[in-house]
Write a structure and sequence with these properties.
Elements: H1 5-33, E1 37-41, H2 53-67, E2 70-74, H3 80-93, E3 98-102, H4 106-109, H5 121-124, H6 129-134, E4 136-137, E5 140-141, E6 144-156, H7 157-162, H8 172-188, E7 195-198, H9 205-217, H10 235-247, H11 261-270, E8 274-281, H12 283-287, E9 298-301, E10 312-321, H13 328-350, E11 359-361, E12 381-385, H14 389-392, H15 396-411, H16 417-432, E13 446-449, H17 462-465
Parallel strand pairs: 1-2, 1-3, 7-8, 9-11, 10-12
Antiparallel strand pairs: 3-10, 4-5, 6-8, 6-9, 6-10, 12-13
Helix pairs in contact: 9-10, 9-15, 15-16
Length: 469
Amino acid sequence: MPYTSQFRCAIVVFALILILFTWPLAACRQAAREPVSITFLDPEWSHDTSVRKELMDIALQQFTYETGIRVRHLPAPESVEDQLALARQMLEKGTVDVYSIDVVWPGILKDSLLDLGPEFASEMSAEDPELISNFSIQNHLVAVPFHTNVGVLFYRADLLREYGFSAPPKTWDELEKMATRIQAGERAKGNHDFWGFLWPGAASEGLTCVALEWQFAEGGGHIIEPNGKITVNNPNTVRAWRRAAHWIGRISPPAVLSYQEWDSINAFRYTRKAAFMRSWTSDYFLSHPAHSEISNREGATRIPAGSSTGVSAMGGIGLAISRSTAHHAEAVRLVKFLVQKEKQLDEARRTSRPPGQDEMVDLPAILEAYSNAEQSVEKRRSSVVVRPSTVTGEKYEKVSQAYFRTVFSVLSGKANASAAAADLEKELIGITGFQSGPLPAKQNLRIEFLFLAETGFRPSSPELAVGSV
């Protein structure tokens, strides 16, 4: 039976009424389904010129696919000082949820970051206690350890072989001799702007790291000891600074005093203008080597030793959450996802072989990637030293600035090393309120070993694993 016009009209009216009543509910449900967006400030990848810069974006895309939570991935400036300034600015504005922070920032940013200890207790139970302590302030875990970086020496393995060297240098004396010979040989071939050794010499946090390695290796201590004594003014530190100043214009270019980290990397890897380079690495970077003009022709080893010991500065990145985040649960979920993904990669790296043909010799044992590989298994023994950020807390930034400016003045020939060390001591007393004191009888550092499972060897006492020299 055909519908009458009145009936059809009634149907239309009923449909319109149904739409009007149900549309707000549908809109609410649709709004509820809109994915939450959080913001992640991540300076670790901001200036990487290789394809590795895309790896974090891939991980974040996977997180969004699995959770529906969108992540806005923000870059940052290259220098650590500018990165810290940006992080402070964002924390004040409350516009970022998750931060990737340097290992020396917790004491500086602690008042703006959440205590993650309660929510990450299970994840942290298997972590290195010393590593956790670097991200903790007054028993509050202000960041979760993510990528641990250490200072290493990169070298041109092909050039070492060409000039008759069977292994990378173990001491600074050896490095100077090798760098001098290779530099002279390459320049004789017409490569007149080739240099022996590159490192970040600009007045910045990078210089604090390399200069601490120099002075500690000579027995010069930590700048400020864990007990709060200021020890930087000593003959061993002065000797280390003078050695480095002697490199300028001889095996290191005068321009090295303007180099940030990536200036050295570009000159070493992409324009092939040096035999050695001091830089950073991590398990992540070892497993994702940058493709460059010297791929499969470079090697990595520990920082050369001085008259006292050999040591690598420890750096690293932790993941932190802003106190002002409006998306606490989602931010925690992102951090847990990234930490868990890194744990899975750690296990895969530990038991696999390294990519390509790059050499790895005597790396610090804190780097676990490829620790079972034949070329490195018997040689993973080295030590790391930490900057005095925990003992100085929120004053660390000023302490580091005073230190690297002083070292820079010595390297650039504007100050006498002995007088500069004495002036620095006075400045640090004014900044911290601490007192000066003698060097400890023994330098405390972290000595790490990779004990071979097949030998059954284990340290006979705790001092063999974490000790003094």
